Each structure stands twice: as C-alpha cells, then as structure tokens.
Automatic annotation (TrEMBL), chains A, C:
<dbReference type="Pfam" id="PF00441">
    <property type="entry name" value="Acyl-CoA_dh_1"/>
</dbReference>
<feature type="domain" description="Acyl-CoA dehydrogenase/oxidase N-terminal">
    <location>
        <begin position="6"/>
        <end position="116"/>
    </location>
</feature>
<keyword id="KW-0560">Oxidoreductase</keyword>
<dbReference type="InterPro" id="IPR037069">
    <property type="entry name" value="AcylCoA_DH/ox_N_sf"/>
</dbReference>
<dbReference type="InterPro" id="IPR036250">
    <property type="entry name" value="AcylCo_DH-like_C"/>
</dbReference>
<dbReference type="Pfam" id="PF02771">
    <property type="entry name" value="Acyl-CoA_dh_N"/>
</dbReference>
<dbReference type="InterPro" id="IPR009100">
    <property type="entry name" value="AcylCoA_DH/oxidase_NM_dom_sf"/>
</dbReference>
<dbReference type="InterPro" id="IPR009075">
    <property type="entry name" value="AcylCo_DH/oxidase_C"/>
</dbReference>
<feature type="domain" description="Acyl-CoA dehydrogenase/oxidase C-terminal">
    <location>
        <begin position="214"/>
        <end position="347"/>
    </location>
</feature>
From TrEMBL, chains B, D:
<dbReference type="InterPro" id="IPR046373">
    <property type="entry name" value="Acyl-CoA_Oxase/DH_mid-dom_sf"/>
</dbReference>
<dbReference type="InterPro" id="IPR013786">
    <property type="entry name" value="AcylCoA_DH/ox_N"/>
</dbReference>
<dbReference type="Pfam" id="PF02771">
    <property type="entry name" value="Acyl-CoA_dh_N"/>
</dbReference>
<keyword id="KW-0175">Coiled coil</keyword>
<keyword id="KW-0285">Flavoprotein</keyword>
<keyword id="KW-0274">FAD</keyword>
<dbReference type="InterPro" id="IPR036250">
    <property type="entry name" value="AcylCo_DH-like_C"/>
</dbReference>
<dbReference type="Pfam" id="PF00441">
    <property type="entry name" value="Acyl-CoA_dh_1"/>
</dbReference>
<dbReference type="InterPro" id="IPR052161">
    <property type="entry name" value="Mycobact_Acyl-CoA_DH"/>
</dbReference>
C-alpha cells in the first residue's frame, strides 16, 4: 500500500507539464478549436514525448509503461485541457498489445508509438447508449479476409484517424476488428462540446483484420482503459479549475471585499475540495485496478467513473457559479474547463449509467479490496 | 380555498389560447419548441404581432393603452404564450423601462417613448451592470456630467442582453459621488445611435452572441432624457425590480420543457428506464411545487390579504429548475449530446447529424447557456442573503 | 384559484391553536409520553373541540367539514406535536361516511364525533412494506356474519382503540371491515419513535362488519386522507421547527457573535425556508386534491408526500445541526420535533416509495392541473 | 504506487485477526453487530482483554509499553477490530490523555497514571466542553485558583461522554484571564471522586444516557496533577487534537455497517428494489472513496513524502457516511422502524417485536444518536472553515 510516485513517474509528469505550460497555451488551443478541434502537429508533439507509445512495449518502439504512468500523463493533459485524444492511443496500445495477433502488433504498435498511426476506438452505436453489448455492425468472412459494415458514432478524431478498432458481430458473436482507412470507410467530422473533434464513421464492406474473437472482453477492457484515462484527465481538469476558482475568489471584489471572504462561498469551496480529493482518490483506484481480473476491474472502474462523474459535474457547475458572469464567457479559460468536465462525464458512460453498473455489481462485502 | 380558476378566468385563458393559435407563426414556435436559434427578425416579428393586438405591454394599465389585466390574468397570458411556444417577450422595453416611464417620467417622455415600446418598433436595452459591479450594482462608475442642457456620458456597461439590436438604452449613471453610493445615481434614456456609443459582443460559453459590452465615450444625451430627478435613479430602478414578480419563476416555460423532456426521453429510450425516469419524476414534483408557490403569490396579490413576499424563493427555485431540465435533456441524449454543431442549432440545417439525432443538436448548448440563470438577476447567493434576512433578521 | 382561508377556517385555526398553547404544553406532553404515549383525556378534549367529528356529517353529530378544515386543524396539532392521533378520526370519519352502509354510519359516526369511539385504521402488514394491495389477513362469511383473521402492525393507539378499520381478503378480493374491540381481538401496545403509541393487533376469527367490498378503493382513499393529514401535520411541525431554530440562532453566541450572523448558516436557513414554503404549497395541493377523482387524487397525494418527505427530513436534520449539542438532547423540545418529522416521513409511505408512485403515475402533461 | 498491502502488513493483519477471533467475547460482538446497548461491563471487559495483551494503548510507543506500531499497522489493527465487531475503544484514557502525559507529563505522573490506562483499570473522562463554549472552546470559564499546593476548581463541564463511569478526568481550566483566551488555560488531572464533583446525566434524543454535565464546587486538586506548565494547557490540548488522524473517518466501521445494511435490505426485501439498492450503491462508492482517502493519508505518513493534511475532509465525509448508513438502515426497516421499544434495544429481550422484526428495534435510535457526529469533535461547519482556509487562505 503505497501512493507515492516514483522518481521516474515524477519526471514523466514534469516533462508533460512543461510541454503543456510552454507548448500548449490557451491561444494555441483556441486556434485548434477554430481549425476544427484536432491538430496533427500537436499530436505529433505528444508522440515525440513518447506519450502515444506509453502502453506500447519497448520492443515495438514504445515506452512499455503501465496504468500509473498513463494516469500521470492524462492528469497533466487534463490540466491543460489538451484537445488531442491521447486516451485513444492508450486504448489502442493496450488492446492491440493485449489481444491482437503478432502480425497486427508488429504492423500497428510501432506506428501508434511514433504517432504515424492514429488508431481510435469506433464503438458507439445509436441504439446502444452506454451499453457495450449492443452492436448492429456486422463482419463477414469471405475468402479468408474480413469485411465490416456498420455505422459508428462520436469516434474521437474519427475523420483524421488512420485506423479504427471496431466491434462487430461475426457469426452472432461480438468480435473486435482493426479497420484501416481506405475503401469502404467514410467519415463525417465535426466539433464536440469541449472544442475537440469527432466523426460519424461509416463502414461499408470495409476490409478488416480480426483482432480477437472475444470482442466483448476486449471492448470492455478498451473502455476500462478509457475510463481510467478519463478519470485522470478529469482530475487534471478539476485541479486547474480549483486553482482558477481560488485565484478568482481572492481577486474579485464585491461590496468592498474579496469574494473569498464570504463564508457561504468558502464553504462551497470546501465542498469542492472534498469532491476534488475524492475524485483523485478514485482516479488512483481506477488506475491501480486496471490490471485486475475482469470482474473486479469492471466493478472498480464503474465505481471510479461514478465518483468522477459526480465530482466533475459538481466542481464544474460550482466553479462557473463562483465566477459569476465571467464564468459563462467564451473568452475566459474557465468556461472551457467546465465544458471539458461536462464532456468527460458523458464519455465512456455517464454517472447514472455507472451507478447502475455499481448497483448491479454489488457484492456482500465492502471496501477497496472487495 | 380553491385550486381551480374561476369560470371567468378560464374563459379568459381560452380567448388568449385561441388568439395565440391564430397568430403565433408556426415557424417561430417550432424553433422555440426545439431550442433552435431565434433571429432578431423572429423576435421582432412576434413583438409586433403582440404590439398590434395591444398585448406587448400586457402588464400595462389601461390609461397607457395596456389591457389593464390583474395578476392572475397576466399569469394566464404568460402561461398560454409559453405553452404555445411563443418566444419570451424581450422585457427591456415593455416590462422594464415602460413602468418606470409611466411612474416617474413626465408627460412628454411618456408620449415620446411609450408608443414605440407598445408597438414593438423600438428595441430597448438595459444599461445597469458594469465590469466589477456584479451583485454590488450600486458601485457603478459610468459618469454623466451635466453640461448645459446635456449630459456627457463616459464609462462602460456590460452584460447588455441583445444590445446589438438596441435602438435605445436605459441607463443607471453616476451623477454624484457624494453620500452613499446609491444616492448619486440617475436614470437616463440614451439613443444608442449617438456618437461615442460602441457595442462590442461578448461570446458566451455556448458560442452564442447574446450579451454585449457597451462603451460610452463622451456621449451627449439631452437633459430631457433624464427620468425624474437627478440622483434619484436608484429609487426608480428599485421600483422596476419590484415589478416582475411571479414570472421570475418561469414556471410556465418549465411546464412546457418538462413535457418536451419526456418526449426526448421517450425518443432516447430512457423514459422506461426507472433510474432516468425517477429523475424526471423528481423534476415534475419540483415544478408542481413551484407552480403552487406561484399560484399562492397570485392569490395573495388578487385578494390583497396575506401578502407573500417570496420573490427570492421563486428566483432560486425557478432557475434551478431551468438548469435541471436542460441538464436532464442533455443527459437523455447521452453520448449523442457530445457533438456540437453550430449550424445544426439553427432551423433548416440540411446536414447529417450523428446517428440522425438532429433533435439533440442544441441540447448541450442550451445546458451551457442556462448556467447564467443562477448568476443573473441577483445571483442565487444574493437571493439567499435576502431570504435569510426575512427569517433571521 | 384562491388560497385565502375563510373567516370560519381562521376561527377554527385560532381555537385549535389556543388549545395547544394553553392546554397542551411540553410538560403535559412529556408526561403523556412517559405514561405510554396516548392520553384518552387529551383525546376527549380534541373531541370537545369538535375535531374528532370534523369529517362526520352534521346529522351524525359531527361538523361536516372538508379537507381544508382538516388541514388547518392538523397544521395546528403538528405545531404542538400533539401525540393523540387525530388523523385516525379524520380517516375513520371520511371512510365510514364515504363507503359504509347506513347502519354502520349510524352506529359509529356519532361515537367518532363525540370521542366516545376511537376508530383506527389497521392495515399495515409485515410483507406489505408501503404497498396497499398486499394483504394476508382474511375474512370469512359464516351464517351471514363476517369473521376476520390476521395481524396488523403499527396500528395507531391500537391497544386503546374501540374499533378498527381492517382490510382483509374476502373471496380473494380486498374488502374493508370494521372490527370492534372484543373477542378474538388482542393488541400489544408500545411507544413509537415520536413518543406516541401504536400496537400490534391480532384478529382471530374476530366478528366483523363489512364496510365495503371495494376494499382497495376505500383503503387507498383512507391512506390519502392520512397523507393529506400527515402533510399538514408536517407543515405545522416544520413551522415550529423553523421558529425554534431562528430563535436559537439569534440567541446562541459563538466567537462573540450570534450564530445567526454566520453567512453559511444563514444560507442553510434560506434553504430551509425554501423547503418550508414548498412543503406548505404541496400540503395545500394535497388537501385541495383530496376530493378529486381517484386517479388524479392518488397522483397528487403521492407528489405531495414526496415533497413533504424531502422537506421534513431536510429541515429536521438541518435544525438539529444548527442547534449543535442542545439539538440532540431529550430535554430540548426541538429534538422532539425532529423525531416527529422523522416518523411522519415513514407514515403512509416514505419518500422513496412515493417517488416510485410519482414516477409510475407520470403523464405526458405537466403541472398542478395535470 | 501499489494498492496492496505488503506481505508483512498482510501477515500482521492475519495475526491480529487470529487473536481477535480468539479473544473477543461473542456476546459482546453480537451486540456490536446489532447496535444493541453495550453496558459499562461490556466496554471495560473488552478494554481489560486488550490491556492484558498490551494493545489497549495500541498507538503507544514501545518506551511506554506500547507495541510501537506505525500508521499502517495501527490502521490494520483498527480495521480488524472494527470488522470483527469489537466495541470502539473508549478513547479518553489510552488515545487522548495518555499521549499528553507521555509528551508533557513528568516522570512521576507517567509512572502514576499510565499503567492504569494501559490495563483498562482506570476509566478516564474528558473535561473540555462547557455550556456555551461549543465550537469556541477557548472561551471556557471553569476556574482553577492556585491555593498553596492545591488548585481550587469551580465551574462546569458538559457533553462529558460516559462521565458517569469516570474515575479520573482530564480538564482544561482557566488559570488566568489575561491575554488571549487561549493563553490562560491549564491542563489538570482531576480525581472524579473528589469532594465537590457532581455528575448529572444528559439524556439524548434517543433516550440514551451517554453524556453528562459535570459540576465542580470548590474541588481541591493537588498541584502535582497539573500537566506541564500553568497556562500552557491549550498547547497540550492541540497536541492531543493533532493525534487521532485517520481513525476520525471511521471507515472500517463504515465497511462493517455497509455489509450489515445489505443484510438488512435483503431481509426487508428492498435489496432487489433498484430504487433502494441504488442508494446503497451510492453509499458503497462513498465508502470506497473514503477508504482510498484514508489509505492515501496512511501512505503519506508511512513514507513521509507529500504530507496530506486533510483531517477535516475525513471528519466530514466519515460523519456523513455514518449518518447515511444509519439512515438507510432505518429506511430499509420502513414502517417497522417506527416502534421504539427501549427494552428491545438491549440484548436478550424476550418480548414480541411488531412483525417479529426484532433486528430493526435499535435502528431508529441509532439513526437519532448519529446526528451528533456532524456536531461533535469540531462541527462540520468548523471543519469547512478550516478546509476553506487551506484552499483560499
């Protein structure tokens, strides 16, 4: 039982933080939003830092690191509300490395690590809501090769991606495929509420490579990697939101005094601090359970995402309120943190959804280790 | 005690309903029912339709050309408009400045300004808030110096809602720095086309242009545009604030939006999900309770017995409900609330919305936009201060 | 649409309030709790005021009044946290008058009005929780007369009552019976959390009179009368709780100032005031809908009890907290209001139960009149 | 970073568990597992069993006869005791006064008082709160006047938990009225059998006798019972308060009670009612999050890196969780939580509980009793003041 970061982990954090502070200021971000919400150059810089290959083994050109390192990195990206979807690289690295045949690994893992290949999870369907077992996309085998057909929504940077991890029903059972951009793949991109980019991606008899027949297990694992990343990203965004709010409260004057002197607002801030620390605790928990057996992992990740959902909404809304008018303007950076926190709540299952997951997965025993 | 409206009141409601059905353009109500972007033309078109009927100033007494309705009638009128999907009446002219002109303006001012307000021809803006004033309105700094028969106005207003369309603006300006901050304030009407007036948009977190900064650089305002006496403006402003009672709760719109929330929840297959449905059920009780609170206030106003001074409660509960239904709509959309396609938030977009769920397009933006409701009009924290005062002294 | 009370209603309120203020002080109540939680003499005084016959028609010796008068009276009794269960007299009056044959009316209504006959609803069963349609008690007809068997729990003043309104299954269908104390009826009395009295009542082939074959409709009506009474009682208890709390906050000093000067506590009080006025509004609503058609009535009463449950719990708990240590002592009257509010939440269906009722009864339309 | 305890720590846990299984009397743990009334004898019996093993002072360093455990070991010990259904260790002797005597008492005092505390023979009470002092402890008024080799104590303490059983009492008393209120306070040990000491019960809202008022009428206390220096008592008291860190959250007991809540919910047929079950699920997340918070604090203490000073958060969340699980247990009982039969709240009652639901008998009383947890030990409002200070300055 030890929650200290190693020196290596602290160095990783410093490196990412430095890049965010120096290389990813609010104006650069604003320009990226205007330009459509995704910047391949920025993504390339993340790759140069080694981040896209964080979960890619060293012999495939990556850093071969684990969930705690992933958490550290995502916290820092969250702190900078970085638009480029690094979580997708973590998912792709973990899933391909964990489930794919060697040929797929050899072809794609180095590209993911180098940033040359942007591989994203394309799983959301219109009828599924947040369920993972609802899937209408299909895969057919013809002459030894697979073809995938179906439509996937809200695919992160989906019109910029080089390949997709696509769950589809093969012979009635959910399998997971890798589909490279090409014939039979069309993507319709748009901006998302946080200023980032996503796309509706249509697959029409698109050539596909089988990642695993055990698609549901792989998809659940992929989403859990995504949840842990989202939790950490949320913690980073929360930390910065808290900092902005405290600074504002100590600057802004009303009735001749700073608003930080009003007890009712101070107590609100205390409640926010509570949510902040609960969120951080549960983000640790999520990452530390990411390599646990599936049933235990799913239970833990649901608990974490539920807590994060509560915290992100509470802190986001309270921060806007404490800022007053300035908090609802586009010009002020704080409103962008609020939108990021809102989107993270809706990502990989919202709060009510995960309450349901926690509720249905409850056991007789209680606590962190249960 | 009786919950039902009187037969006369019900007849009144039916008449309003019939007229609205006839006169509210469907292309406008469709936008309202779907939270789509309303243009200036939409708003002004509807204002003029009401103006022609004599109902834009629906709270006005008969002597000024209004219908002379009592509190219940006004409520029923507001409810019928809201349920039918009429745009909210832009209040700055008919609801805010007009009562001040009626109460404190001179005959000349009344004759000059009221007709344009009543008809919907002249668009008014409000000049109260300033950068830094916030909940402490009396700290305002915009100066108006009397020079002969003119005032020279310098300073800045902010959060000027729809000020980009404004013809005229009513302002609180500082004409004296002596005494308490409240005592040196005057109430001035200002032609926004005057030299030295600059309107700069403030883009909100939802991407919309709804409010503005307005700068005054040596703007000349004829002294005849002063309402009442110099340095008495704070009194007039408070009169204005004490108007607008029950509508602050916006319960009628909440009822319409609750019905819409149920439609969205059905379409998204969460209406029969007990976990989500319970959240709607809680909101339904909130709205019924708020409506009962509003009706109690109306009844007290009607009878004159047992005045119920709970405007702060109406503001808090009303704004929390507004935020909650927009939040639940967004949550009902689930992952499909994440796409944020500006063009899809205006009527008539022909693009492909993700999953074909076009109705969800404006939900997140509406949720973001509604965060303002607990901040403006006296933040909910200020309202709690006031309520506590009534309970604890 | 009119929420003013008539002069008669105001006089009724004054009369009850006077009795509470002068005749039912805290010491008398404390003595009654010690003596077992029910005092027939006090009940007699309520009868003398005409309150037990409030819903009994004048030609049966009652006052022939309606729900608004019932509300006014229950508010005042709630303000005084009167132990004696007048709500039971309202239920008995309304149900017998509304559903029973003339013979039952002629026999029992005058006794209810005079206070000579304490008739209480005995409906709660162990397996039913808050459901009204779950009933294991049975009724058998033999030789033209009915016999009821079964056990009913938490019957208000059940060991002091002269007769019971008892739902029981007759030929598989829920019917409602009146069972007078006598052979085959045994009651085991005890105190309740608010200091009042209840009993476990066993019926063993007890002679019964049929009130109505349409037992579920009558029981639902009975419970709705009870809900409206409970809501009004809750409003009275809330009003007094608010008054006590405000007085305490303006008296108690900490750090050299009254605690009423702390903004965080002032805002708590504002939130309590909100709940108080929402509760009062929904209590009005409950009483004004009590004579509506069954479906509309049930929907409205569920909404009201849900709101009251939220308000009673919030105000009760917040009041204790604002009082600090003194608030959790038996000596201080405020703690007894808290316990009363707690019990009222559990009476005739708790908050979660009624949330379920509201949820399942929702319609497409919205608002007070829907 | 690692979530698992080390093999050594797990071995430590197993040893504690085995010992507790052997030594905790079942008739006592049955009472704890069912919230039944614990007598003085129950508490003292268990204290003496721990004392004999040398574990009553489980936080003590070795030089004073304690086991010298680190923060994690103490936590594991507390957890094993809690999960097994051991009564909470009455803290006034071993956890509260003993560390003060060790740190600030002289050798004579240590020799005289510590053995009786360690063995569980001598029952200590706390004399801090006074009528009117509340969260403003430094305002205390009980006077101690030095007369020769004695102090003459006059005044009153209140909320003295289990003071009716007390042999000795440690008191904060005023020895000077000069300077700030904090500077004139001394720390005095007082034999409760002294002449002039009167203990008067305070009955709580649940009907229980748990706390007392203690009156001092010219009580003579030998000057040798003064801890440390006169007028320095506030410093010692603060040292005491800074002890007791993570256990303030009481997360181990919460885990035990969550499991019990699930058992009750199953017995009452609401565990499979999604609406109720969701409430348990929320509590489960709360408890896991709190446990993670506690573990983070322990880890920080163990490594000495990144000190985590969040006692206020632990107090608030821990107390809110305590109140919530007692509330949910009561709600699970539904109507059968309404009967309030005092005798049924003690073990061995032979009467008929309504519906045969005897296990529900103490639930409402426990719920009522737990309202104190957000008030005592620094009210949650005071904790919020402190937390806000750390965030906002």
């Amino acid at each position: 039982m030890d929650f200290d970061f190693s020196d290596d982990q602290e160095q990783l954090r410093d490196a990412v933080r430095k890049w965010v502070d120096r290389g990813y200021d609010f104006e650069r971000r604003r320009a990226a939003v205007k330009a459509g919400g995704f910047d391949r150059k920025t993504y390339g810089e993340l790759a140069e830092l080694g981040l896209t290959g964080l979960y890619v083994p060293e012999d495939h050109g990556g850093m071969g690191m684990g969930p705690v390192e992933g958490m550290v990195v995502m916290e820092e990206l969250g702190r900078g509300i970085v638009l480029e979807p690094l979580a997708q690289a973590l998912i792709a690295g973990a899933v391909i490395n964990g489930y794919a045949p060697d040929a797929v690994k050899s072809e794609w893992l180095p590209k993911i690590a180098s940033g040359e290949g942007l591989v994203v999870l394309a799983y959301q369907e219109r009828k599924a809501r947040y369920r993972l077992d609802v899937c209408e996309a299909t895969a057919m085998q013809a002459g030894g090769s697979w073809k995938v057909s179906g439509t996937k929504s809200i695919v992160a940077a989906g019109d910029q991606a080089d390949a997709y991890l696509v769950p589809a029903k093969a012979n009635g059972k959910l399998a997971l495929f890798l589909v490279a951009k090409g014939a039979g793949v069309s993507a319709n991109g748009y901006t998302t509420m946080d200023g980032g980019r996503a796309a509706e991606v249509k697959f029409q008899d698109a050539a596909a490579t089988l990642v695993t027949q055990d698609g549901l297990a792989a998809l659940e694992h992929a989403v859990d990697v995504g949840i842990a990343a989202t939790c950490a990203e949320g913690v980073g965004a929360i930390d910065k939101t808290m900092q902005l709010t405290a600074e504002y409260m100590n600057t802004r004057k009303q009735f001749g005094v700073t608003i930080a002197s009003f007890q009712a607002l101070r107590h609100r801030m205390a409640d926010m601090k509570m949510q902040q620390e609960l969120a951080r605790s549960m983000s640790y928990y999520a990452s530390l359970k990411l390599n646990a057996p599936a049933e235990e992992r799913r239970r833990a990740l649901a608990r974490a995402k539920y807590q994060l959902g509560v915290a992100m909404r509470f802190i986001g809304q309270a921060s806007v309120q404490l800022h007053g008018g300035i908090g609802v303007t586009d010009e002020y950076v704080g409103s962008h943190y609020f939108k990021k926190l809102t989107q993270l709540e809706l990502t990989f299952g919202d709060t009510l959804h995960h309450l349901g997951e926690v509720s249905s997965r409850m056991q007789d025993t209680a606590g962190v280790f249960a | 005690m009786d919950l039902a409206f009187t037969p006369e009141e019900q007849k009144f409601r039916q008449d309003i309903r019939a007229w609205v059905r006839e006169n509210l353009p469907k292309e406008i109500s469709d936008k309202v029912h779907n939270s789509l972007h309303l243009t200036r033309e939409d708003m002004q078109r509807w204002a003029k339709i009401l103006g022609k009927k004599g109902w834009l100033g629906y709270g006005w007494p008969k002597e000024f050309g209004g219908p002379g309705w009592n509190a219940v009638q006004k409520h029923l009128f507001e409810e019928e408009l809201a349920l039918a999907g009429a745009p909210r009446i832009v209040p700055f002219g008919p609801v805010m400045v007009a009562p001040v002109i009626m109460a404190f303006g001179n005959a000349e001012q009344q004759k000059r300004f009221l007709p344009g307000i009543a008809s919907g021809e002249v668009w008014w803006s409000q000049g109260y808030s300033e950068p830094g004033s916030g909940s402490d309105l009396a700290s305002l700094k915009t100066r108006a110096e009397r020079k002969g028969d003119k005032y020279i106005v310098n300073g800045q207003k902010t959060w000027t809602t729809l000020g980009q369309y404004g013809d005229w603006m009513f302002n609180l300006v500082r004409t004296s720095t002596e005494g308490k901050p409240q005592t040196g304030i005057s109430f001035l009407l200002l032609d926004m086309k005057s030299k030295g007036v600059t309107v700069r948009p403030i883009i909100m977190l939802d991407g919309g242009h709804e409010v503005n900064e307005v700068f005054f650089d040596n703007v000349e305002v004829p002294a005849e545009n002063l309402i009442g006496e110099e340095n008495k403006g704070w009194t007039y402003a408070k009169h204005l604030l004490s108007h607008e009672r029950t509508n602050i709760a916006d319960v009628n719109r909440a009822k319409r939006e609750l019905e819409r929330l149920k439609r969205i929840a059905k379409a998204e297959n969460v209406y029969d999900d007990q976990r989500f449905r319970d959240e709607i059920a809680k909101l339904e009780v909130d709205i019924v309770a708020l409506e009962m609170l509003v009706l109690r206030v109306l009844s007290a106003e009607k009878s004159g017995k047992n005045a119920l001074d709970i405007a702060g409660l109406l503001k808090i509960k009303g704004s929390e409900i507004q935020q909650r239904y927009t939040e639940l709509m967004m949550l009902a959309g689930g992952p499909y609330s994440v796409p944020f396609i500006k063009e899809a938030m205006a009527a008539g977009w022909q693009g492909d919305f993700p999953g074909g769920a076009l109705g969800l397009a404006p939900l997140a933006a509406t949720y973001f936009n509604m965060r303002k409701t607990t901040i403006y009009g006296g933040s909910n924290e200020v309202q709690r201060n006031i309520i506590a005062q009534t309970v604890l002294g």
